[in-house]
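Final report, closing paragraph on structural work. Over the funding period we assembled a curated collection of sequence-structure pairs, and we close with a single example.
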Amino acid sequence: MARRKTPSEPEAGELWKDEELARLQRALLAWYDASRRNLPWRRTRDPYAIWLSEVMLQQTRVEAVIPYYERFLERFPDVASLAASPIESVLPYWSGLGYYRRIRNFHAAVREVAESYGGAVPSDERFAELPGVGPYTQAAVRSIAFQVPVPLIDGNVERVLARLLLCRDEVKKASTQKRFHAFLERWLDRSRAGDFNQALMELGATVCTPRSPRCSACPLEASCRAHRFGAQEELPRLPERVPSVDEAWVVLVLRRGEEPGEVWLEPREERGLMQGLWEFPTWIGLERRALARALAATPSGAFALLRERGVEHAYELGRERHSILNRRIRAEILELPLPARAPKPSPQGRWVKLEQVSELPIGGFTKKVLRRLGE
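Its predicted structure, as stored:
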């Protein structure tokens, strides 16, 4: 016997008529024209500036991006200025945004634009071949900067479509993405491609939010199937989250000379998270007692100075919590004063005047430690 369909399961083959899609286009764009946020990257048609904003906005809140965006453009206003700058001088202007692979790829891609395309960001498929440019970035930049009619899908768009179409499948599945893309190909307003794509993202960011969506303020409310059947809080269906991992850190602040004095910083290795950033010596997976044993076992020369001074005599600056992706970090921060002419404690790194640390590329956790030093 065939299973009866409940009201929350419309026919899978039900089609959206062209007339309804056209009406939804008009409603969405009218809402966007009246309600969009006044964001700095919406006040330019410069492909470089729009590209920069899209890179910065990946996995970062709009409110956090704005000051970084404005400061970055003030220092690197165009392709030529960024391409001519080494990555070491660029990283401080990204410091604190995280996911540093984004800026390394962007820097490499801009250099390629300068070298291969005379400094003009390509508007065609060649843009997708640049380092770090994935399907979303190429669609966003080409549609917004050049009005190329290509649909885009990000987390906000996925949420809007899952609810509008009453899609109960996992949104990241290839089959779901294919379905969303096919729907957008029909729905996209080709005369205002950039505005249409931004309107969908804006709707997901400000109205069709993950929790407590404001359906009464949504221009698509009358056609939204999830709203019709009261399923908006259940959707979208997301992949299972990666479980969190707890980590213990010991962070050692070596300060030499009279305060504020100099502090010892080391560059992270070129691979892995936060590559190329400068940080205080950090031991992962250790408690304070274990650090003393680890230092005692280090090869001759490396941190010999610390063995002589004795980590047990370090002051405790406090404990700090921090998160990096799925890692939940509990850090014990120690400060060990050293003589004014103390040598290098290890072959890597350098002594830096405390007031000059912010000129180096540093991550969010290092900034937390610096705030403790200033308290």
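The first helix runs from residue 18 to 35. Strands lie at 245-256, 262-267, 278-279, 282-284, 315-324, 327-338, 350-353. We thank the funder for supporting this effort.
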